[in-house]
From TrEMBL:
The keyword Membrane applies. The chain crosses the membrane at residues 37-59, 71-92, 207-229, 235-256. Residues 1-32, 451-472 are annotated as: Disordered. The keyword rRNA-binding does not apply. Keywords: Membrane, Transmembrane, Transmembrane helix. InterPro entries: UCP026631, YdbS-like_PH. This is YdbS-like PH domain-containing protein. Pfam families: bPH_2. Residues 92-169, 262-328, 371-445 form the YdbS-like PH domain.
Length: 472
């Protein structure tokens, strides 16, 4: 899916060396500023933070009269706005970004100056976020991901949306060694839409999630108790956290995933989503370390699944347990679409086409019901592990992405003559573990996976199968 863009390019000059485009010398000494409205957006964010902090104090039981409450709210908003405007102006005034021949660089700081460097050869992806307040002014922030762990993300706030898109094209072109000359338009990469998840499906999926039903049910029960049972109004204090839980679920799963679009380009998959705040995220094919196929209990009745992906450098998101994060590949999908997308990223990973090694019947002591739903298996390209009877999860790990393999056996496992096999990947939603296999079988599985990880080369990108498209 192509994004609209104008023909205004950043001041790029002739390349200094083959495959490495250059810029005019002035860009390396003067740099470029972010948008002047950065200070206004920063002030609005601080004002909103002050108001939220005041509401939080009120909900925690701090007493406020009507007049005092209104004055406190006004003071929090005005104070936050003033502080945010001053801090935002200083940040804008002392921040410069540079697009040099070999790297991008961001210099910032009022008292202590810092210089953040992003070499093009280490640049993995460039994402665009449009926070709600910034979106009102037509601004966006740029996230640059480098190879290298938790400190690999660099953020540039705020640019005009068209400028952010143009800068993303420049950075990605340089990262892939493409020559970019002065005055040469950089066309948006051609993309094919794989799936568009409609808002009504997002809403229905949220309503059928167990945590939403539990939190909404708690609110209803507490309200009913306050009206029916004498002297039960003390229980109403639990409505606030339960209601906050409901709002959080709706915000992270409905509002954040609104108009979810997954598309495919030559360099990777792109995810665009969001109602109030919009985000555009790119997942390069070569950075995919594994996929988790999640089937919540009620979703299985109608055949829905959720796909999460291990991406090198992203790590574990604090929102992953809520079902939305940088690692959400598809929030809701039919089995056919989920299977096609998984095959696109990890070929030969069909759970129905694998010889399964089940958990030992002697492991019923550890999971009286769940042991029947645990198994591992391997195809010529992929290691698979499944567990869960309330929420079923199938983890897919390409053999050539295996970082290490562990064989674990605790005292109780030794007593039951069982052991567990762990296939390690970078931190993320994928947790490929074969729990409580027969001890000799677990050892054989671990050794075989080590051999596959060592000997099997990565698949050719040209051999990746086409994907089907879905617009539900």
């Amino acid at each position: 899916m192509s994004e609209p863009h104008d023909e205004t390019d950043l001041p790029l000059g002739p390349p200094e060396a083959s495959g490495t485009p250059a810029v005019p010398e002035g860009a390396q000494t003067e740099g470029r500023r972010t948008h002047p409205l950065t200070a206004v957006v920063q002030g609005g964010l601080w004002a909103a933070g002050g108001a939220i902090g005041l509401f939080n104090a009120f909900f925690n039981g701090e007493g406020f009269g009507v007049v005092r409450g209104l004055l406190s709210l006004a003071a929090a908003v005005v104070g936050g706005l003033v502080i945010g405007l001053v801090a935002g102006y200083l940040r804008w005034r002392f921040t410069r970004y540079f697009i040099d021949g070999m790297e991008a660089r961001i210099e910032s700081g009022v008292v202590f100056r810092t210089s953040r460097r992003i070499p093009y050869e280490r640049l993995q992806s460039v994402d665009i976020d449009e926070p709600f307040l910034a979106r009102l002014f037509g601004l966006a922030e740029l996230h640059m991901e480098m190879a290298g762990g938790s400190e690999s993300r660099t953020t540039l706030r705020f640019l005009r949306l068209d400028e952010a898109r143009q800068l993303r094209r420049v950075l990605l072109s340089r990262a892939h060694g493409t020559d970019v000359h002065e005055g040469q338009p950089i066309a948006e990469e051609q993309r094919t839409v794989i799936a568009v998840v409609s808002p009504d499906r997002i809403i229905v999926g949220t309503l059928l999630s167990l945590d939403f039903l539990i939190s909404a049910g708690a609110v209803v029960l507490l309200l009913a108790a306050g009206f029916i049972i004498p002297d039960a109004w003390a229980l109403l204090g639990g409505i606030i956290p339960a209601g906050f839980w409901v709002v959080q679920i709706v915000g992270t799963r409905v509002i954040a995933q609104w108009n979810f679009t997954l598309s495919r380009g030559a360099r990777g998959l792109r995810i665009e989503r969001g109602l109030l705040s919009r985000s555009s995220q790119t997942i390069p094919f070569e950075r995919v370390q594994g996929i988790a196929v999640v089937e919540p209990f009620l979703w299985r009745k109608i055949g829905w699944q959720r796909l999460s992906v291990d991406v090198a450098g992203y790590g574990v998101s604090s929102e992953e347990e809520s079902g939305v994060s940088d690692t959400t590949l598809l929030p809701i999908a039919d089995p056919q679409l989920a299977r096609a997308v998984a095959e696109e990223l990890i070929p030969l990973s069909d759970p129905d086409a694998v010889l399964r090694v089940p958990a030992s019947p002697r492991s019923w002591l550890f999971a009286p019901i769940g042991w029947r739903f645990r198994w591992v298996g391997a195809t010529p390209r992929t290691f698979l592990a499944q567990e869960g009877w309330i929420q079923r999860t199938t983890d897919l790990v390409p053999h050539h992405k295996t970082q290490s393999v562990a064989l674990r056996q605790g005292p109780l496992q030794r007593w039951r003559n069982v052991a567990s096999v762990e296939v390690h990947t970078p931190p993320g939603p994928v947790d490929a573990v074969g729990e409580h296999l027969e001890a000799p079988t677990a050892r054989a599985v671990a050794l075989e996976q080590l051999d596959r990880a060592r000997d099997l080369p990565p698949p050719s990108a040209a051999s990746a199968p086409p994907v089907v498209t879905d617009e539900h």
